[in-house]
Specification:
- Helices cover 41% and strands 14% of the residues.
- With 462 residues, the chain is of the alpha/beta class.
- Helix 1 crosses helix 3.
- The longest helix has 23 residues.
Amino acid sequence: MTIWPPKPQDLRRPAYKSLADVLVRAVDAGELRSGDRLPTHRTLAYDLGLSVQTVSRAYDELIRRGFIAGEVGRGTFVRAGRSDTKPPFVPDSHNGEFIDFSILMPVFEPLHLDEMQRALTRLGTDLPTSAVSAFRPSTALRKYNAAAGKWLTLCGVNPSSQGLLITNGNTSAMTIALMTVASSGDLVVTEELGHHTLKALSRYLGLRIQGLEIDREGVVPGAFAAACEKSQVKAIYLLPTGLNPQAATMSLERRRELVEIARRYDVLIIENDAWGPLQPDRPDPIAAIAPERTFYFTSLTKCIMPGLRFGFLTMPEAFESAAANRHLVTNWMATPLMAEIGSRWIDDGTAERLLQWQMKALGKRNQLAAEVLADIPFNASANGMHVWLPTPGSWTEDGFVAHARLNGVAVAPGSAFAMSETVARRGIRICLGAETDQTLERGLTVISRLARSNPEPALLTL
């Protein structure tokens, strides 16, 4: 039985939403593929016995969800489906062929492996039974709340003023936050260049996502206010402290401006602070300014060790039960063994010692990037894990990425972070954490040479 086109009797009320949902299911089932041309509004309306206005409304809904796109003079076409979402990083299948600047991760050296081996050895002699036997989330994880509170305090968040969930890292926290603040059809706004999984995740959850104009600090307050005036905005998702693709850090004044707008229009805030206390002298988290409406998350994964999936989500107390329920049905609970290791490291000072080591290592790498890319405009943040290179000279974004790969260097295109196809700002994200000091300098030298040269399209055919 085929899904597309639907039979008129299979459509439910409201017909426009039912028609849109059928097309989504057809994309997921592979019956409709990227590039397939759809019937005109009038033709589909006639075939299904609907009004042209109903079909137009269904197509508008699908455009908002990112499933179809209209091209003037050509028609309406299916865009990449859910399974076609591509990450900005190079998959593992490259087998070390490239110097990898495409994936965002902290510096990892043998000392990190040594610390984990010591932790596992100690667990072998005094592993608490609850870490491997407890099946009720409250029983298994309540004991780790104190350590979580210590780390959140180091991040500038007062855990006593909000509800707390322990999660398996930032992605889990992000998903729970979105599921808690918004329902299918609700509008969430964010930076026009933002988190690379947010667009796809919002689509999976049936949320509408809209990118807002950004400047050197992040979201422009006027753009946020205008969006709230035009539509009912349920939440704003922000990466205010260096983590965003452009490596921008939002000033305290800007944070307060956005909070004031959120309060005026009763908009909830999701603050992604995955790096936590990695950057010195950073402004107060938005969660410290507006705890009554902010969902804040961070973890030890980005700032300590990639494999330490131990994270924290705080939320206004009024939402604590709702967030816990959504965490229960999607994750059940965070992994107690990871929580045990992470909590011990927080309590005995290992986590903060590794944090300080990471800050120094990334500080040196940012200094190296500044030296190699001297006189080439780029954005960076203190101890950040990446730099942002606006597309240089006459290069196109795609052309620069392709030429870098031809020269053995993988970088992330800015388009991977765009919330829409019309984002004018283009550039390259260059991650600093994955490689050794030696390969980092070699790869940055390749980037510097390309940025100072003119593109050679003929190379793309080699």
